[in-house]
Amino acid sequence: MSERAPMVDGCVFCDIARRAPTSTTALLYSVPYRCPHDDKVVAFRDINPSAFRHYLVIPIDHIPTVNSLHKTKDDHQLVSHMVKVGKDLLNQDAPNSEEHRFGFHQPPFNSVDHLHLHCLALPFMPR
Ligand SMILES: [Zn+2]
Ligand SMILES: [Zn+2]
Q1: Which of 5-9, 52-56, 117-121 has the lowest mean pLDDT?
Q2: Of 3.30.1330.60, 1.10.10.10, 3.40.120.10, 3.30.428.10, which CATH number belongs to 12-124?
């Protein structure tokens, strides 16, 4: 498994976060290079949504999983910021949703090995 790094070749989420030319994913949230806390994360739609609104918030740096987070002020701020961005987006786009849910994968149940916060506004989508 890849370790924490500025970016990892072949990581689809690094490509999205760094706006690689091959990536066509539209970002819902990114304020690069404006304030020190807002150049840390980006948000975009889950390609396989399971709810009315289903967004992912990811750090721009490659952090594989929650197990790679440390009990430092920086990491604490990063996670708080990811949650805040997710809440702001759902409050903005789905203010009347019955419920907002937020969650990280718990390893080894990871879909993509780049830390991401799932942000869902219910109802769930019928499959
Ligand atoms: Zn990555
Ligand atoms: Zn996931």
Answers
A1: 5-9
A2: 3.30.428.10
